[in-house]
Amino acid sequence: MKLSLAILSLALSVPAVMSAQDSMRVSTGEYPNTYSSGSANVSPFTQESKRFNDWSISFGAGTPLIQSADLTSIKNGNGKNLFGYSGYVSIDKAITHAFGLRVQYDRGETRQGWFNTKDAVPTNVPAFQQVAGRTQYNAISLLGDINFSNLLRRVDNKSPFRWALHGYAGIGTLAYKAYQKDINGQRLATEIKPFKGNSLFGQAGAGLKYKLSNRVDIEGRVMYVVTTDDEFDGGGAQYSEINRREDQVSDNFVNATLGLSINLGKHDNHLMWHDPLQEIYYKITELENKNQDIEVCKAGDNDNDGVCDDWDRQLDTPAGARVDGAGVALDVDMDGVIDLYDKCVTVPGPVENGGCPMTNTTMPTNTVTETETKLDGIEFDFNSDRILPNNTPILNSAINYINSSDGTYTVIGATDTVGSDEYNQKLSERRAGSVKSYLLQNGVASGKINAIGRGKKDLKYPECDPASKCPEWKNRANRRVYFEAK
Asked: For domain 375-485, which CATH number applies: 3.30.2130.30, 3.40.50.970, 3.30.1780.10, 3.30.1330.60?
């Protein structure tokens, strides 16, 4: 149950948390309805609705080491262990809790070759070891920032969220001056201006952050820089005499730094330190751990129909009766007999007949006179002249009787009191015509019957004028066709 609840909450909550910081705010605008789009719990995203800080400034310093070049900073390559210096500053924007962008400026100096260019050229070494270089560079780049810790954390991870692994990658423009020193002295070997076609470079790497406070993070970072330039190290094609590694067409270096990030804004937490999965877990746990009795019905439910007495409009509902939201027993056909006691739940009828319509399927056994009881029971739906299936037994009995008798008969149509006199007159004529057509199609001679309509002037229950004064079963009985003998 806990896992299912967590999955459901995750499915509903995480997309909103990842795409907008205001997903937990409750809308104070117009109340939505089923015809409006969106959710009642989502407001338009504004600066005022932000829950987290999403801007920060980062800076740090470290050392770059040329790893792949004609002159390197690493011993046993084309050089010895020579450490330069580097520094960076960036403006960072968190887009979601797991992704951000940063504009970064880097400045530094690499030192490579067989000796430090500040030292004298050694004379007791082979000629190819009498070359050194240093490169001063400036770079501006746009980096993507992926928070892997937020992507990989489990929903039930209860540990404090103070460590975060970040991945970085991006491109930019690189400007540099590369100097070379040998027995002839030091000189400027190559100079590249920024924002030129040959100044494009890329870098990628990872950083491990630790949350010192809600405002300050410390980060150790290692970046791999691809300069796309064979002359960055001060060697290159122009100086083939020192190109001992001809397969190195790009001078790449590793930059290891230690820095700080200052989170900006008025909120307590930064978006990159927010873990929506953990937030959901804590909220679910809090709800599950609440041990309090919820009193549903303060006034009780005396008739045990599931509706509290405070809202129950029928406090004495019979046991077993189905009720609506107001606690009123259901009466589907609205004939005044609740469904619990109605023998004909979907067909209206009088109370004295158990909620079923009154029918008389027996025809007179002797000659019909003008003073004898009329044949009732052929009833119609509201505003309809269609013969219902439950009327066919009555009509078939009428066919047998009319064909076996010597008299003639009048089919009389009537209506209830809903509508105008003119409309009901035409409706009653159509009802009488429908019954007459049925009789003729099933074997009654045309000379033995005719049809007339009397509209709403021939009511079986005269008290139903207007129709609102009577239950539905009485109005239905008024919507009828019956026979009179001539």
From this structure: 3.30.1330.60
